[in-house]
Amino acid sequence: MNFIQQHKNGLLLNIKLTPNSSKNEILGYTEDYIKIKVSAPPNENKANKKLIEFISEFLNISKSNIELLTGDKSRYKKILIKNCQEEYIKQKIFIYDKIES
Question: What is the 8-class DSSP label of residue 20?
Answer without folding.
Answer: S
